[in-house]
Amino acid sequence: MPHWYRHMGIFLEVCRTGSFRQAATALSLTPSAVTHHVRKLEDKLGIPLYRRDIGRFELTPEGLDIVNRFRDPLARLEYEYNQATKAGRNRSRTVKLTFASGVGTRAFYAFLARYSRENPAIVLELDVNDRREDIEISGNDIAVRIGWPETQNSGVTVHLRRIRSMICASNEYCCEHEVAKFSDLVQATWIYMRGLPFPIRFEKAGKTVNLAPDNVLYVNASNIAYDLVYNSVGVSTLLDFVVEDDGGYEKVQILFPEYRLPERELFLAVRENRRNDPEVSRLIDALVAHFTR
């Protein structure tokens, strides 16, 4: 709280109670502390606020003018200050971030850990899910989404990059299984996100090519598919930045790049009423720098 504001509040309490002693009792202060605050206010304003030549508390004409000018505005200011302080303590320093499981690479988690260390005053609340919720309904402040911004009915969207999925398998898996031709993938163990269209529809040279593997392991989150591929369990489609982020080109092979899945977009969805909050803006800038580096 600003010092002048506290000095003024204590002075007005002296005026309300009619004495330094009663004001001290009401404020749980000593009479000398109350006197100190009033003198500090006089020093700041450069005028005497009460008479010292009589044995009771009485305002000077200048002091009466100050009371008339500040009593009601100060009460409103005190309420607004307390509300803003409470809101700042409970809300603005907490940022709720949700992101699709496919975004949760080791590099991204390292980024979040580093960001938290460098911004200790900001509390990050993380939620990892693949639900396609509108940002205003989800209760989160920022969402990192994979798809298309126009699917968001509210909030502000920030484009990060275009992304595509690539057929990937670990080097070890490729050594142990024959995947020389695209048709060999029918016999491969496929790790596939539950809920995505099946058969898998690829495009090659402008023509649609369907793939229906015989052995499919369904998973509920794309980061599970990612871990299973890296552990040589099977073949799956991984997002390009996932492979790039974790140095995956040393661990996996990209199979048949001429067979493509539709490109999608990586973007941020931000709650409208928090877009300009310093804590939210700072995290948005950091996320943009991380994903577009």
Give the topology.
Elements: H1 3-17, H2 20-27, H3 31-45, H4 61-92, E1 94-99, H5 106-118, E2 123-128, H6 135-138, E3 142-147, E4 156-163, E5 165-170, H7 171-176, E6 189-193, E7 200-204, E8 207-211, E9 215-219, H8 222-230, E10 236-239, H9 240-245, E11 252-254, E12 264-270, H10 278-291
Parallel strand pairs: 1-2, 1-3, 6-9
Antiparallel strand pairs: 3-12, 4-12, 5-10, 5-11, 7-8
Fold and architecture overview:
The protein has 10 helices and 12 strands. By secondary structure, it is of the alpha/beta class. It folds into 3 domains: 89 residues, Arc Repressor Mutant, subunit A (Orthogonal Bundle); 98 residues, D-Maltodextrin-Binding Protein, domain 2, CATH 3.40.190.10; 98 residues, D-Maltodextrin-Binding Protein, domain 2 (3-Layer(aba) Sandwich). The protein has a 5-stranded mixed beta sheet with strand order 2-1-3-12-4. The protein has a 3-stranded antiparallel beta sheet with strand order 10-5-11. Helix 5 links the parallel strand 1 and strand 2. The longest helix has 32 residues. The protein starts with a helix and ends with a helix. About 2% of the residues have low confidence.
